[in-house]
Design brief:
It is a single chain. Helices cover 16% and strands 45% of the residues. It is α+β, with helices and mostly antiparallel strands and 330 residues long. The chain has three domains: 2-26 and 219-329, no CATH class; 32-95 and 167-203, no CATH class; 98-164, no CATH class. 15% of the residues are buried.
Amino acid sequence: MKPKVVYIFMGIVILGLVITNILFYFQNDDLIGKMTSFKQITETLVRSQTEIVSKKDLDKALKKYLTSKDITILKEDLRKMNATLGSVGITIGKLERKVKYNQRSDKQGKPKEPVIICKEDGRPIDVHGYTKTSQIKKIRDKNNADLADVTFDASSKTPWSYEVFLRKFYLSTIVGKKKDGSDIYYHSLKYKVPNKHKEKLFNIPITSSSYKQRINDRQMFWWNPTIDLSVSFGGIIYSTVFPEDLLSVGVDLGFSTSSYGRTKADSLWKFFRFGIGYDAVQKSAFLSIAPISYNLGDPLPLLTNLYLTPKIHIDYKGNIALGLGIGVQF
């Protein structure tokens, strides 16, 4: 009975570890809503507000400043680049409204000949009647958006007045994540003239954009609990009474405590795996131990998490088996 008690105890311990890992795995949902606030660091540098959101919220943010056509083409390009949507950002800047009244001319042009003057006092004659009313010129850009109003009052000693309208600039940044950990950046730059065109957005062509990105070096993560399901093939190497069939074929649920890779989610190696499973040939439950697992999906283009694991099985009947497992991480 004592061996049974030991097996039951070890099974309870491993099951507890697996449950702990599952809870750890799903606690990522608790991150949704966590936020880093916007802050003006210096006069020319700001820290962006960042928020962890769900995929639904990310898609909703994408639709706010991009057209349906842009979104369709963006997702198709992400697919071609073997990348997924990582984050969506919007940066807003503005040029304040500026108003100046009764300004002198900055300079004068060349005089026109002949100048029509009054015979009595020699003053220039207002042939076109510009002194009767102020002359107002509305300045628009290539998008036909109002930029400024300029007023010239020929009857005034300081004839110039102007108003440059407030403009808000919107830089949308979309980040795609590639399998190798690198990012792909997409941008859309637009502006508003809220006092004249309400919510209408005008496009600004982007002539160039570049980023220098550092890929994470592979490192050891001593506490990175993960679970996986593995099918193993091997044979019995020790038993008090050797069975007739020395073949061992089983499936087990494993729990690993550590990993080595670029990030916790991108592992090349996993370490210290413990599992509990069932041997179909020996018809017995077993515990498994594996010091290391290698991710076959890392160098292969079509796979992500496919682990090759050499491990030792100790089954309920007292058999010790050496096997090689292949499995997927959840």
